[in-house]
Design brief:
The protein is mostly helical. The protein has one domain (5-121). 50% of the residues lie in helices and 5% in strands. It has five helices and two strands; from the N terminus they run βαααβαα. It is globular. The N and C termini lie far apart (39 Å).
């Protein structure tokens, strides 16, 4: 069994941006302190939330399957790729992420690579 992993460096979130909100258990006091998901985002409201949360809290990651995620949801559709990454870049800037310029450059590159892969797979 893989031990629980303490997530404490919120900057790593910017490189992976892969915290599954479907399988997250967050104490109500965290929402009371930092606020809810931002409804101004259509796809990346969870990413914005985690950027805010990791500034003030540490979290434990369990290496266990808690949900069955459908990768063909709204954020995985080719038509939403640009919006997905545009919202990620916006959240990085609004949350004053360290090295946001370079991270957003990487995010833009990931967006174009995904679009090319979708095009080849179609």
């Amino acid at each position: 069994m893989i031990p629980k992993k303490l997530l404490y460096n919120w900057n790593r979130l910017n490189l992976k941006s892969m915290v599954s909100h479907q399988a997250s258990f967050v104490h109500r006091s965290v929402f009371d302190q930092i606020g809810l998901f931002n409804p101004n985002y259509q796809l990346r409201m969870d990413y914005d939330f985690w950027l805010r949360a990791f500034r003030q809290y540490d979290f434990l990651m369990l290496n266990e399957i808690l949900v069955d995620y459908d990768p063909h949801g709204m954020s995985g559709k080719p038509d939403n790729i640009h919006l997905f990454y545009a919202e990620e870049r916006k959240a990085n800037c609004l949350n004053q992420v360290q090295n946001a310029f370079w991270i957003n450059l990487w995010v833009s590159l990931k967006c174009e690579i995904k679009l090319i892969l979708f095009w080849f797979m179609d």
